[in-house]
Amino acid sequence: MTDDTTEQTVLDTKGHPDRDAARERMVVRQLVNRGIIDPRVLSAMRQVPREHFVLEGLEEFAYDDGPLPIGEGQTISQPYIVALMAEAAAIRPSDRVLEIGTGLGYAAAVLAQLGRAVYTIERQPKLARSARALLSGLGMDNVQVVEGDGTRGWPEAAPYDAILVAASGPEVPRSLRDQLRVGGRLIIPVGDETHLQRLVRITRRNVYDFDEEDLGPVSFVPLVGAEGWQEADTRDRRSGGRAGRWSSALLAAKRASADDDAIALVRRHTEAAPPLSETSFGRMFARFGDARVVLLGEATHGTSEFYQARARITRHLIEQHGFNIVAVEADWPDAAQIDAYVRQRAVSAKERPFKRFPTWMWRNTDVRDFVDWLRTHNGSIADTDGRVSFHGMDLYSLNASIDAVVSYLDKVDPEAARIARERYGCLTPWQSDPVTYGRAALSAGYPLCEKAITDMLRDLLDKRLDYMRRDGESYLDAAQNARLAAAAERYYRVMYYGSAESWNLRDRHMFETLQTLLAARGPSAKAIVWAHNSHIGNAAATEMGAHGELNIGQLCRQEFGKDCALIGFGTDRGTVAAASEWGSGMQVMDISRSHAESYEHLCTRAGGESFLLDLRTDGRRELLRELSRPRLERAIGVIYRPETERYSHYFEAVLPRQFDAWVWFDKTHAVVPLPIEPEPGTPETYPFGI
Question: β-pairing, 180-190 with 198-204?
């Protein structure tokens, strides 16, 4: 999960999802990088199209690093687990293989590439029929789908050289042991609770003796059947013998009770928030006034209450606590026009800011109102160097940044400008569509632009002192645009290798931009950051960290420690401004009510229209302990897909480790966008042209 879901999608040369490239990326990143080395297993995983074995509408997630639902309370296993079990089974081309838990047939299709014959058992009739049709349609005629109780195996085709079980039982079923050929391997997860399941390999030494190896912890759905769990049992726990297992109803009651405890603690520690129109809302955040950096999040990119709250908090921190930098999740050249406006300098850009998708993210009435206030506030400060600045941290605007660097050098160093044009010429065909450069850079023999771009940045930095003597502020802008061009070139090139690499490059760039701004304003500088929760919450406390992703919040925590404050925002329901796919028009969409296993669900059940929940340790140990159990958290970016919300927009997190505070609005409303084209007679100094 990211705040912009399209970054995870691999596209072909026509802009369509490239499943072959996504499958190859999955093999390299999820399998090879984790130690899967069997060339036959890797080849099988490359051949089988996983997108055929997921539910309609979930195809774009087919090569994500996790399980997906397939109906009937079942899931398709994580690709790594399928490969791990197949490698552990050491299947030879002549082997006869039994699989328990067909699902829609993905693992059976992989096994069919490895063995001579595969027999796969599914207890759910609907899934068995679907799997049979899917496998037949793909021409896999060495697979036979059997409907029945997998815990009893299938004696008709026994003995088997390998048996693989895709569900967790309380113990290894005796029938499966008996149907294993001498020398055969049985791979099965065993255990009572999800976090106590172990994947084991049973090898039959002779008629009576078996060896057992522990392959590590796993998490599977329960193995239901005569020699597994009963229908009323749960995989989560058993308290003794077979008759003493917890029923699913009892476990549900226990979970509800645990949620009730958490809800009571949240309710006890919330601080009701005043209306956003009152200055007292901002005063609630005076507790963070001593920080050097305050990061303010948002759960969506299109919710008015989040923008209004950040504006009110920012106003208080500027007026009462000396903050003098506002850095936002926007492109540097666009934000530079806003900066010139609020600091009452000339606006010299070729086009008005925030005209590219998603326009509503910064071109809306809430941002306009804050920008107006900031201009008025700065007008009361006689020392122009002491005025509050407004900057973008993001790196999408390759074209505008190159123009800014060349325009600056035209004024201060024409010879350097000539060299810049030559170096940036490498990217000229791609400036308006840099994603295409990233795709072209993958082609063998296509010259990369990296050296030319970085040489330009190096030259600019080498002449820092000379240029700064002429105009330090203009130099800062040009140098940052050169940094952005270098980072953007790398970003668009690596985005085709996987979301973690491109995500990390983008967030490192934003963090380095923040560091540059603080250094430029001196040791007393204090910054406020506006960005999505997924950027400003500590990634190490979420499943992002498990996937190798970091973010600006994590980097700030590492750099500034307690001198930074990470403040997240959430909502349960309402409306949001978003698009259904990248580049499409903005819509005002209804936000679905929060998932029952989410932090948002706890907050809406705690009651209250809006509140602040301080997540620091003082006097809140019981609350923090209760909230430290991982739960789901929702993230809506510029794209919102309610029909796949659980998999498109939720990720697992530990809220007290992710944020220092949590701001809650139970029901929220979409931002109001501003028109793109200026109205007749609009003053040129006004950046929004409204």
Answer: antiparallel
Residue with tokens 């502020």: 473
Are 227 and 96 within 8 A, CB to CB? no
Coil, helix or strand at residue 411: helix
pLDDT per residue as tens digits for the range 132-141: 999 999 999 9
Please give the structure tokens belonging to residue 206.
Answer: 């002779």
Is-contact 236 219, C-beta < 8 A?
Answer: no
Residue 145, SS3? strand
Task: Note whether 153 and 146 are within 8 A (CB).
Answer: no
Model confidence over 636-672: pLDDT tens digits? 998 898 888 887 889 889 999 999 999 999 999 999 9
Tell me if residue 348 is catalytic.
Answer: no
Q: Which residue did the predictor score with more confidence, 504 or 7?
A: 504
Report the alpha-carbon distance of residue 28 to residue 22 in Å, rounded. Answer: 10
Q: Which of 77, 130, 168, 598 is catalytic?
A: 77
Q: Which amino acid, residue 363?
A: R
Give the helix ranges, DSSP H, for 463-498: 464-494
pLDDT range class, residue 544, cuts 50, 70, 90: confident
The pLDDT confidence band at residue 504, using thresholds 50, 70 and 90, is confident
Judged by average pLDDT, the poorest of 298-312, 482-496, 660-674 is 482-496
Distance, in Å, from the CA atom of 672 to the CA atom of 596, rounded to the nearest integer, reads 30
Q: What is the pLDDT of residue 333?
A: 83
3-state class (DSSP) for residue 466: helix
- At 258, which amino acid appears? A
Give the 3-state secondary structure of residue 116: coil
Write out the DSSP string of 341-393: HHTT-----SS-SS-SSSGGGTSBHHHHHHHHHHHHHHHT-S-GGGSPEEEEE
Task: Give SS3 for 413.
Answer: coil
Is this prediction's pTM over 0.70? no
Average pLDDT over residues 85-109: 96
Nearest Cα neighbor of 660 from 603, 600, 616 is 616
Residue (of 413, 528, 415) closest to 475 by Cα position: 413
> What integer is the mean pLDDT of 8-14?
44
Q: What does each C-alpha distance from 83 to 99, 306, 442, 536 come to in angstroms? A: 14, 43, 27, 35
The Cβ-side half-sphere exposure at 610, using a 13 Å CA radius, reads 14
- Structure tokens of 400? 């505008």
Tell me, letter by letter, the H, E, C secondary structure of 171-240: CCCHHHHHCEEEEEEEEEEECCCHHHCEEEEEEECCCCCEEEEEEEECCCCECECCCCECCCEEEEEECC
> pLDDT for 559-580, tens place per residue?
999 999 999 999 999 999 999 8
Residues 200, 534: Cα–Cα separation, whole Å: 36
In whole angstroms, give the CA distance from residue 396 to residue 485: 9
Percentage of the residues of the chain whose pLDDT score is greater than 90 = 53
The Cα 498–Cα 191 span in angstroms is 34
CA distance 333 to 400: 6
- Does residue 6 surpass a pLDDT of 50? no
